[in-house]
Specification:
About 35% of the residues lie in helices and about 25% in strands. It is built from 5 helices and 5 strands, in the order H-H-E-E-H-E-H-E-E-H. The strands form 2 sheets. The chain has a 3-stranded antiparallel beta sheet. A hairpin with a 2-residue loop joins strand 1 and strand 2. The mean pLDDT is about 80.
Length: about 140
């Protein structure tokens, strides 16, 4: 099961979305052990390298404060971001009947891309579906 977004996922964001993501991450204070990537330039071509682990040392602090670092969001971080930016957020229901215990997720359709068909949703991993919702919030 995919646990977090990738560099390819980050590359889907516009410059403005990346800046909003970085600001959100800054406000919530990057945690120790957060995974992140750093923007580097090679021959006038910018790309992201990583992942790196926030260990609280100088390299992370320097990258973070220069605006070169972006988080590789975990499933939990994406839930936090989506929940914090929507009136209804995500609804998680827990069913405890005689037969089974399970969680049921409800993601409001308005935070998913218009072109996403409901029969496509079962083909997504939870991380990828949350990434679609997160990009909409950004």
């Amino acid at each position: 099961m995919k646990q977090r977004i990738t560099i390819d996922d980050l590359n889907e964001l516009s410059t403005e979305q990346k800046e909003r993501l970085r600001k959100w991450w800054m406000v919530r204070n990057p945690g120790l052990s957060d995974l992140y990537v750093v923007k580097v330039k090679y021959d006038d071509v910018a790309c992201y390298e990583g992942p790196f682990v926030n260990s609280g040392h100088r390299d992370f602090n320097e990258d973070y404060h220069k605006g070169e670092a972006l988080p590789l969001l975990s499933i939990g971080q994406m839930i936090e971001m989506v929940q914090g930016n929507l009136e209804s957020g995500l609804l998680i229901e827990y069913n405890n009947d005689q037969v089974s215990n399970y969680f049921h997720w409800k993601i409001p359709k308005r935070i998913l891309p218009d072109g996403l068909l409901s029969n496509d949703i079962p083909n997504f991993e939870l991380c990828d579906l949350l990434w679609l919702a997160t990009k909409t919030v950004l």
